[in-house]
Amino acid sequence: MPARELPEVLILAAGRGKRLRPLTDATPKALLPLGAGTLIGRHLARLHEQGFSDVVINLAWLGEQIRGALGDGGDFGLRIRYSEEPPGALGTGGGIVRALDLLRGREFLVINADIVTDYDYAALRIPENCAMQLVLAPNPPAHPHGDFGIRDGKLVMPAEDAPALTYTGIGRFKRDAFADCAPGRFPLIPVLQRAIAGGTAGAETHRGRWRDAGTPAELEAARREIARE
Predict the structure, then answer these.
(1) Mean per-residue pLDDT, 206-218
(2) Residue 2 has pLDDT above 90, yes or no
(3) What is the pLDDT of residue 4?
(4) d(CA 214, CA 114)
(5) DSSP per position, 11-53
(6) Which domains occur in the chain, in start order?
């Protein structure tokens, strides 16, 4: 893929947002207010600023509100399409597989809708001989044990020489990474574990702003940070 050609983007917005209840009882988490806009609106604005053009958003819980608020993406200078999921959603892995029919390129970027970050999405690249590149961050207080480690630029399970870090919900994937996945409901972790075992999962650390705004306390903290900008 040429260096200046940016991939399509999949924003994961299908989740129920149980940790954010009661805020998400009547509003999907992606549309919760943040600064002058919403959680997902901030991602869309930054994607446009960085040169992206095509976005797919997966929908389940209160998805019609997201579609109604964002439309075809023209207000953000983007082209948005939607991947509909059944009630209860399909999990991260199942949601990605469901969206593959709408993702036309060989690679695509994945972003969780409920994170707040200053990460440069346009800079994310998959290393040679890898099927993906995941972005990790230092563990926040709410997730002190982390998820994975990094050794020689590869994603690994945490070990003494690869301290635990937290997956940010940002990754770039080759569609081939999901070639063996059957449609249905499943998490992303089995896909990552197969890539770790095969040495095809790249990883990097982001030490700038990143916050999982998936709880009321973290969402409020993110709002305070944005208000100081």
Answers:
(1) 94
(2) no
(3) 56
(4) 6
(5) EE-----GGGTTTTSSS-GGGSEETTEEHHHHHHHHHHHTT--
(6) 8-227 (3.90.550.10)
